[in-house]
Design brief:
single chain; mainly alpha; MetI-like fold; about 75% helix
Length: about 300
């Protein structure tokens, strides 16, 4: 008797087993192919382009320049300003969004009359298109007819009125406020959903042991939120560092580079300066920094959860 017959594995059975085991891979291959085509290929092409002097003026011709684009970038004072602004905005926005999101989630989880209405209203700022949010803020901060300046004049503080997006001192804080205004409700709803999944028995046991509200939050609520906090931080570090819309639509990076961030800087180098190779080098630096930021956030949150 042959080995195949003794083990019960006929050629037909072997092929059928292989088909069953590979069927799942065959189903995901089209989606995987599209993802790799839309993400991996442009990334590799961008990295290669960053080592050339390719220009949009004559895109068919380019020469290999090695690390020249990177050297020029690191010496460019505007690039340094944009890099600092991107890091400052990302850190400030994500930290404040987590803190304010926790506060708002604690308020929205309370069992009071009409709380479902407030939960629905809280999400309005997040579901609005970014362009609509920017238009609202620009109208509120108009020099002569903006709500903020009108209110300042009404309370006798008219000397504080200004063109808020046109002032170097107030433009960047307004960009930060727009990020908070849009994203804090999203954090709050995510945190509230995670809070509702925490067993009430844990809080009951803590109260019996004499733990107050703060100790309950610190030792029960916060540890049970560590995974959703990690997800939200990683996602919004990526979103904020890459965000182009708020700055470009509100100030365009001005006034006098006061709100310039890496996405707007790279956009200007590529589409205004036509220096595609130079802009690609900036994109590669952004990619490296973003990977490092995500790794740092991941390690930091894991360290907190272990404690």
């Amino acid at each position: 008797m042959s080995a195949d017959t003794s083990s019960g594995q006929t050629p037909v059975a072997i092929w059928w087993s292989l088909w069953k085991n590979s069927f799942g891979y065959a189903l995901i291959f089209p989606a995987l192919f599209v993802i790799l085509g839309l993400n991996l290929y442009p990334t590799i092409e961008g990295i290669v382009t960053s080592f050339t002097n390719q220009s949009l003026i004559n895109p068919g011709e380019s020469a290999w320049v090695g690390l020249e684009n990177y050297a020029k970038l690191l010496k460019d004072p505007v690039f340094q300003i944009a890099l600092w602004h991107s890091l400052e905005l990302t850190f400030s926005a994500v930290v404040l969004q987590v803190l304010l999101g926790l506060v708002l989630a604690h308020l929205l989880i309370q069992k009071v009359p009409g709380i479902h209405f407030f939960r629905s209203v809280a999400m309005i700022t997040w579901v609005l298109p970014i362009i609509a949010s920017v238009v609202v803020f620009r109208f509120m901060t108009l020099p002569n007819y903006g709500l903020i300046n009108i209110l300042l004049a009404e309370v006798g503080a008219g000397q504080l009125a200004r063109n808020w997006f046109g002032d170097e001192r107030s433009a960047f804080p307004l960009i930060l406020i727009m990020h908070l205004w849009r994203n804090v409700p999203f954090y709050a709803i995510a945190f509230m959903a995670a809070m509702q999944a925490i067993s009430a028995d844990l809080y009951e046991a803590a109260r019996i042991d004499g733990a107050g509200e703060w100790r309950q939050f610190w030792f029960i609520t916060l540890p049970n939120l560590r995974y959703i906090v990690l997800v939200m931080v990683v996602l919004h570090v990526t979103f904020t560092f890459n965000n182009f819309d708020f700055v470009f639509l509100s100030t365009g990076g001005g006034p006098v580079n006061a709100t310039e961030v890496l996405p707007t800087y790279i956009y200007k180098q590529a589409w205004n300066g036509y220096a595609l190779g130079y802009a690609s080098a900036g994109g590669v630096i952004m990619l490296v920094i973003l990977v490092l930021l995500v790794m740092i956030c991941n390690r930091f949150i894991k360290g907190l959860s272990e404690q």
